[in-house]
# Entry
Amino acid sequence: MKDHRKRITGCLVLLLCLSVLLSGCGSSMGYGVKAIETLVEQEYSMAFRNDDPTAYYIIGAIQALDQEGKLGELCMKWFGQRIINYPKTDIRLENLPETEYRDFIIGLDINSFPLAYAANGEYWGFDVEFAIAVCEKLGWHIKMQPIEKENVYIELSSGNIDCAWGGIALDPDEVESRVYSRYGPYVKNDIVVAVRANSNGVNSMMLNGKKMVMPSTPEAMDALNSDPKLAKRLGQITRLAGGTTECFSQLYAGKCDAVLTDSTALYYFNSH
# Structure
């Protein structure tokens, strides 16, 4: 009987040690983040000039890379799960006439981490990496051009870009008036207020007097202004020139209580 009790006690001690060890590992792997309020709902799409045959080749290559598993592979790399889904079409790359080598210019919103952003003088992000894979599939040379999302029609119609593709939330009025051809949406990306997953702030009302950081972009400011009550409840709002990554660095360091960010960024930081 005594031996039986000793074995039970030993098992309980072992389980307690494992619990403590796993808790320690969890804290070293990062906090995790969660959205507590959605300020702006939006979606990312691609845009081409109307009647531009380039679109058929790009869409065909996207469909092919999806079937080959490349799209899913990049989703896991950037987001930890499949959150990107391009609309299915009947366009097949093998049914299109052969295309010659050419430059393909995409327009990026480099303030849309982790879809498209600039670092160390180069462009990075999920959209960037997938666009490179698409051009490799076609045998084209890709060029990247930062643009403002408000100027998609101007950039396309002037020939400055061949496609708006890189964290672009298209203007609903432009989509409605069909001044260009849209392919998408391919991902939902809302602008949200987020806190650490282990935070006691379970809703936005618990942010009273708290500190929030946000990117210093017009889009972020517009999102903040969409809820005037939020700004009044917060104790301090700091705009950071370093963008999304700096905002999350501040959050993880405990220098703020919340961040204003994109929902796609939550997938990134919760999987890295």
In short: The two ends are 49 Å apart (CA to CA). Residues 1-30 have pLDDT under 50 and may be disordered.
